[in-house]
Amino acid sequence: MEFIKSATKKNDVSSNDIETREIVESMLNKINLEGESAVAEYAKKFDNWTSDFVLTESKLQDLINSVPQSVKDDIDFAHKQIKRFAEAQRNSLTEFELETEEGVTLGQKVMPVQAAGCYVPGGRYAHAASALMSVATAKAAGVDKIVACSPPRGNSINPAVAYAMHVAGANIILEMGGVHAIATMANGLFGAPKVDIIVGPGNAYVAEAKRALFGPVGIDVFAGPTESAIIADKHADPMTIAVDLVSQAEHGINSPVWLFTTSREIAEEVLAIMPSVIADMPNADVCEASWVDYGEIIYCEDKQELAKISDEYACEHLQIMTEDLDWWKDNLKNYGSLFLGEGSTVTHGDKCSGTNHILPTKCAARYSGGLNVQKFMKILTYQKLTEKANLVFSGAGSRISRTEGMEGHARACDWRLRKYFPNNEWNFDVYDQKSYSSQGEKNA
User: Fold this and answer.
1) Assigned architecture for domain 2-12+225-369
2) I want to staple 120 with a disulfide (CB 3.0 to 4.6 A). Which of 44, 80, 150, 413 is the partner?
């Protein structure tokens, strides 16, 4: 492995992270103590917002009416793809019941959470696609109450975002952003239900608020700056690589973009092209900071070494521009979402192809996938044992409990043996049969 270009900075824990955590903790504590008044105070401070937070039907309709039909058509198209993929995920989850031994019935139910909170960022960009990714997926999972929120800009949230939330199926839309929006959904303020899970991307303060509230509520992923990587061999097109790297660098000044390649020639060509591609961007300063500070190009001698490096990085978005796409699909293990072939750019997944763009970062892809219907669902198990089955399972349960030193657990099984089989002679060793025998014989 050789670094053709190294990053000058790393997205590690820093004093900025500690400061962010302290600010978020202070805000959450204030909201816990003061409730809606604290939220209103923060909304005025950060967004100059003094109007109602719940988007009314009449205002929603006005926002929808202001969205050009061509934009609505594109949002509708993207919604169709995302909804169809999420519904296929839902249908892949199986409920079952089986008899494992005579008289022992075990089963599994798949149950959606009752209420979900979907956060949609509203800073530099209008993230209509993020509204679809979170709200439509929760809807496909069967969530009964969906709360969506996004920070207002001027007199309202972005009209296209409002339309996307509405089309996807949000029940309540809040014109609110930041830490106080996350706390509002978690605590059920302003008439919104107290949600069971909060999903959606956001800035460092939003991510920290989700992390701090995890436990009382579920969250989708521990999110950091967007990451994108490309795996390329000698057959890849350097300009396509450069364009795609820059397209992801515009996420933010600390969003890393990486190239892993088995071709030194490709590595050097991309390195030479990047400055001109960046300079052509309207937000060149953002893209340049991302590339200069966090961009990397890594050369490996063979694809096995390259696959190992890629799995170590566990990138959020991973594009494959090679001849043997199936080999990479079969051998790569750690990534948020995989984009196979030159025809698949991250933009497709981010906006309209159907897979979800809310994905794990900071190596979390080693143990977690991205947002999907299962994040909004619970696997519930149940069991039923007949009296006859207790002859075997209460005996085993009693013995294992005593092996572990848990006498109370053992006696719960002993009791059933005495109750269901009163005429048998039981030898419970250290267990004194007399303590339950009289009641057991009476019930028997």
Assistant:
1) 3-Layer(aba) Sandwich (3.40)
2) 150
